[in-house]
Amino acid sequence: SGLEAEIKLAILKKATILQKRSDNKKKSLSKKEYEKKYGKALKDRKKN
Prior knowledge:
By secondary structure, the chain is mainly alpha-helical. Helix content is 96%, strand content 0%.
């Protein structure tokens, strides 16, 4: 049963890492979307 617990733990760790990765992807995507939405406004503001 010790082995089973280790396997479960390893799977959990892997799942958490994958979750973090997808969260980071979402963050970088929303950052790009943010720049797309507000980049123009920021450029206009810099001109004035």
